């Protein structure tokens, strides 16, 4: 029997501290983040982590979040270190963030990986994490004890129930980060200002415009100069960022909505369903229907 999170294809799962430490040890301190977002709450002790060249000291009642694009390396872990760790499927988590945060706030929060929680914040987050974990354990027993004739249907019900609880937990994590927001008052550099304007424009217009020239014209820059700024600052090209935003929506709509593939292609402003299918296959290696069957709950 697979782990219930895998069996029901739940887009998040809990990671045992021992497995986390063992994986980091085998990888000489590197934390693998292939397509997942790691959320960790330190319950005791401390850990020193280098994330993209910046060193963080994580202590008791701190929370830190690692995105797939991060390069994370554990430098030191105390003997009494203990943490609650959850892997979120990045597409699942980003869909939640995209739905409630404007792009400028997303940019800010993506740079705030580490936060110290108040006692009340810590208690609330841990209560939610424990509640979801307990429900997953109960769901495993329920699923195993379900007659084979209705197991698939029961599995779908349990999956949707657990996903709704996972969403609540993700929203509470976002809420904690927003409560702790401390906006910098320093003046942005020219490159930082351009980057923020670019991401804001992408957030507002990605469904209608995917061409670099449109965004360059909107920012009164040459396409070449805008491309160089975005690539130099983020490591990705403007086209990669635009595609990432479009694909995040497409995957979420395929996996978690009842809209037809034709409706999804129209919502994302593709010329037709065939064009959308080719675009999606080019990015994922799967057709939209194959992805929906593999990842979604909608038949």
Write the layout of secondary structure elements.
Blueprint: H1 4-7, E1 12-15, H2 17-26, E2 30-31, E3 36-44, E4 46-51, E5 54-59, E6 62-66, E7 72-77, E8 82-89, H3 90-100, H4 103-110, E9 114-116, H5 119-144, H6 151-179, H7 190-205, H8 212-218, H9 223-234, H10 238-256, H11 261-267, H12 273-284, H13 288-295
Antiparallel strand pairs: 1-8, 2-7, 3-6, 3-8, 4-5, 4-7, 6-9
Helix pairs in contact: 3-10, 5-6, 7-9, 8-9, 11-12
Radius of gyration (CA) equals: 21 Å
Task: Tell me how many strands there are.
Answer: 9
User: Class by helix and strand content?
Assistant: alpha+beta
Q: Give the number of helices.
A: 13
Q: Write the CATH architecture name of the largest domain.
A: Sandwich
Low-confidence stretches: none
Biggest sheet layout = 5 strands, antiparallel
Tell me the helix content: 55-70%
Number of domains: 2
Mean pLDDT: 84
How far apart lie the N and C ends? Answer: 24 Å
Strand order of the largest sheet: 1-8-3-6-9
The rough form would be described as globular
Which CATH class of the largest domain applies here? Mainly Beta
CATH topology of the largest domain: Jelly Rolls
Beta-strand residue percentage: 15-25%
């Amino acid at each position: 029997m697979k782990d219930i999170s895998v069996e029901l294809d739940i887009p998040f799962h809990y990671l045992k501290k021992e497995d986390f430490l063992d994986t980091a040890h085998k990888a000489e301190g590197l934390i693998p983040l292939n397509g997942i977002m790691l959320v960790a709450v330190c319950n005791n002790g401390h850990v020193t982590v280098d994330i993209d060249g910046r060193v963080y000291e994580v202590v008791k009642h701190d929370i830190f979040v690692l995105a797939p694009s991060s390069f994370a390396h554990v430098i030191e872990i105390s003997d009494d270190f203990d943490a609650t760790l959850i892997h979120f499927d990045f597409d699942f988590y980003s869909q939640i963030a995209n739905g409630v945060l404007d792009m400028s706030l997303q940019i800010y929060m993506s740079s705030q990986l580490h936060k110290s929680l108040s006692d009340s914040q810590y208690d609330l987050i841990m209560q939610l994490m424990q509640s979801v974990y307990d429900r997953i354990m109960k769901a495993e027993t329920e699923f195993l004890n379900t007659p084979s004739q209705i197991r698939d249907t029961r599995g779908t019900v349990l999956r949707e129930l657990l996903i709704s609880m996972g969403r609540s937990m993700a929203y509470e994590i976002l809420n904690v980060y927003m409560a702790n927001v401390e906006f910098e008052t320093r003046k942005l550099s020219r490159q930082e200002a351009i980057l923020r304007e670019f991401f804001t424009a992408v957030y507002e217009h990605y469904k209608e415009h995917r061409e670099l020239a449109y965004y360059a014209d909107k920012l009164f820059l040459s396409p070449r100069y805008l491309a160089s700024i975005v690539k130099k600052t983020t490591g990705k090209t403007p086209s990669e960022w635009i595609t990432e935003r479009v694909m995040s929506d497409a995957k979420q709509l395929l996996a978690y909505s009842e809209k037809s593939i034709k409706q999804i292609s129209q919502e994302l402003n593709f010329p037709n369903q065939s064009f959308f299918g080719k675009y999606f296959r080019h990015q994922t290696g799967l057709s939209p229907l194959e992805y929906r069957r593999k990842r979604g709950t909608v038949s």
